[in-house]
Amino acid sequence: MSKNKLAVIFPGIGYHCDKPLLYHAKKIAAAYGYKVREVPYTGFESGVKGDPEKMHRSFMKAMEQTEKILEDVQWESFADLLFISKSIGTTVAAEYARRHNLITRNIYFTPVGATFRFHPQTGIVFHGTADPWAADAEIEEGCRACGLPLTNIPGTNHSLETPEDPMHNLDVLLDVMKQVNDYVKA
To answer: How far apart, in Å, are the Cα atoms of 66 and each of 27, 81, 117?
Structure first.
């Protein structure tokens, strides 16, 4: 395993690092020689969706925990930094990179609207068109403004799934992971 490549996984509030999108993305990163580091922040309030104050407090809590979890990383020893993030983790990844002057490549799974206020760096974005956490227009405009390629997945929710068709969900997951694989290996 190459010592100069690091992938950092930033989960969502209820979407931990072993759920499908993050689990498979980190396996792909590891297969391409990335050392993988997870940021397992916890302790969020309930009822965050739709409540800007709770969302902000959750972001602040996640940032505080992320600073502690990653304080021992010697960033300068890595030539290639890949941030893989989900939901509120997309805001944390963007802000962490900004605060620490890191140049990162990114995989943004189902970002929230606030993500684009943190000036996300280069990467790819995946969004479900039935995502109750983020409006299609907000995500499309944010990606356009930041120059980020967006893959909209019709009819899928914040986990890029549909509740009624598990076999379709597997097809979606495979398609998404093919794009992730192509991005990671580039």
So the answer is: 21, 16, 19
Residue type, 130: A
How confident is the model over 43-82, as pLDDT tens digits? Answer: 888 888 888 899 899 999 999 999 999 999 999 999 999 9
Q: Which two tokens stand for residue 92?
A: 């944390």
Contact of 153 with 179, CB cutoff 8 Å:
no
38: tokens are 């997870």
Rounded to two decimals, the pTM is 0.95
Q: What is the 3-state secondary structure (H, E, C) of the chain?
A: CCCCEEEEEECCCCCCCCCHHHHHHHHHHHHCCCEEEECCCCCCCCCCCCCHHHHHHHHHHHHHHHHHHCCCCCHHHCCEEEEEEECHHHHHHHHHHHHCCCCCEEEEECCCHHHHHHCCCCEEEEEECCCCCCCHHHHHHHHHHHCCCEEEECCCCCCCCCCCCHHHHHHHHHHHHHHHHHHHHC
Whether residue 155 contacts residue 162, with contact meaning beta carbons closer than 8 Å, is answered with yes
* CATH T-level assignment (fold) for domain 5-185: Rossmann fold (3.40.50)
Residue 23: which of 163, 183, 185, 177 has the closest Cα?
177
C-beta separation of 111 from 87 below 8 A: yes
